[in-house]
Design a protein that fits this description.
Number of helices: 8
CATH topology of one domain: Phosphorylase Kinase, domain 1
Structural class: alpha+beta
Largest sheet: 5 strands, antiparallel
CATH superfamily of one domain: Phosphorylase Kinase, domain 1
Low-confidence stretches: 231-241
CATH class of one domain: Alpha Beta
Strand content: 15-25%
Strand order of the largest sheet: 1-2-3-5-4
CATH architecture of one domain: 2-Layer Sandwich
Shape: globular
Mean pLDDT: 81
Length: about 350
């Protein structure tokens, strides 16, 4: 069976016999120590994960058991560790592991993370299936929970040669080449904007529930769920622990903006309390001011409700109301650029 199947809609399950896997015996710290520019940094990013289980999961996913090497590829900012897994056939896949320990998150945050990871997998898979003009890596398997043999959420996907668009852009001094890069980015944006989506509303792609025997995926295997933003639902702070995402996708941009605003106000009410005179310190990094500013909570709520009324009264042009893909962590650092293509 060629192409992604309905098995991808389920988190991968690693059987107990992974412990008998002898192709990799090195620990996480040993692998990291070899791959880091500063080996002393290894203990700071140690998660206590089982890399042999990750290697076993990769072999299961691609149905290839001649794994020859697993190395630390890079650490992506403060969010992920990337491991490169090589096979005897020449195949290379990447195992992406979340850095933040899941035990530091609330149950709600864990659920939001699982749903967001599923959305990333669903989006990559949908684009690969139905937007053929956009080069997209194959996702082989995933698990959004830390309750698995690896010990952390992970995604297994094809390794893509090239540099991040962020590095290419900052290192490029040729205006002509920069223009070419922007034209390529615009071309892909246009392809995503023109994608024919069988959905109504604005949110994040998710898989539908798994029903029946394993088969190739089609458009009926995808649905639209609420928009999940990492910054809103995964920060480990008092104000974010009790934030719940909207239950369903918004039906219009105005509904989406209003839902997010009301949700933001509710979360800060939990943090700051209901006393109107409460003084809130707005950090200078968040406002156009050289110093921190004290603002009354009552004034913040009044401004928020005014913005909410403005949203309801504002007419949105029809060309802004067409469904489109929404990826919460879309950034140049997550785009691989191949100058030869």
């Amino acid at each position: 069976m060629h192409g992604p199947t309905t098995a991808l809609k389920r988190p991968q399950e690693i059987p107990p016999n992974w412990r008998d896997f002898r192709h990799l015996t090195l620990s996480e710290e040993e692998v990291d120590y070899k791959g880091l520019f500063d080996p002393s940094f290894a203990h700071q990013v140690r998660l206590g994960i089982e890399l042999p289980a990750l290697a076993f999961a990769a072999c299961m996913a691609v149905d290839e058991w001649n794994m020859v090497e697993l190395t630390l590829l890079s650490i992506a900012g403060v969010s992920s560790k990337l491991y490169l897994i090589k096979f005897g056939s020449g195949r290379k896949i990447v195992g992406r592991i979340r850095i933040t320990p899941m035990d530091s998150l609330s149950e709600l945050q864990k659920r939001c993370y699982r749903e967001r990871l599923e959305s990333e997998v669903a989006t990559l898979t949908y684009v690969r299936l139905f937007c053929s003009d956009i080069p997209t890596p194959v996702v082989w398997a995933w698990n959004g929970s830390a309750e698995n043999a690896v010990g952390a959420p992970y995604v297994l996907l094809d390794y893509v040669e090239g540099e991040t668009l962020e590095d290419v852009w900052h290192n490029c001094s040729d205006p002509t080449e920069k223009t070419t890069i922007l034209q390529e980015v615009a071309k892909h944006h246009a392809a995503l904007a023109k994608a024919v989506l069988p959905f109504r509303g604005f949110g994040a792609l998710r898989f539908t529930s798994v029903v029946g025997e394993e088969r190739l995926l089609n458009d009926t295997d995808f649905r639209l769920g609420p928009f999940l933003s990492e910054g809103r639902h995964f920060r480990v702070t008092k104000s974010r622990r009790l934030v719940s995402p909207p239950p369903t996708a918004a039906l219009s941009p105005s509904d989406l903006w209003r839902d997010l605003l009301v949700e933001e106000r509710r979360s800060h009410l939990i943090c700051w309390g209901a006393v109107p005179e409460t003084s809130v310190v707005l950090p200078k990094d968040d406002i156009d001011s050289p110093v921190n500013v004290d603002v009354a909570w009552n004034d913040i709520q009044a401004a928020s409700k005014l913005v909410e009324r403005l949203i309801s009264a504002t007419r949105v042009p029809p060309w802004l109301c067409s469904p489109c893909f929404s990826i919460s962590d879309y950034a140049f650092r997550n785009v691989i650029y191949d100058p030869g293509e």
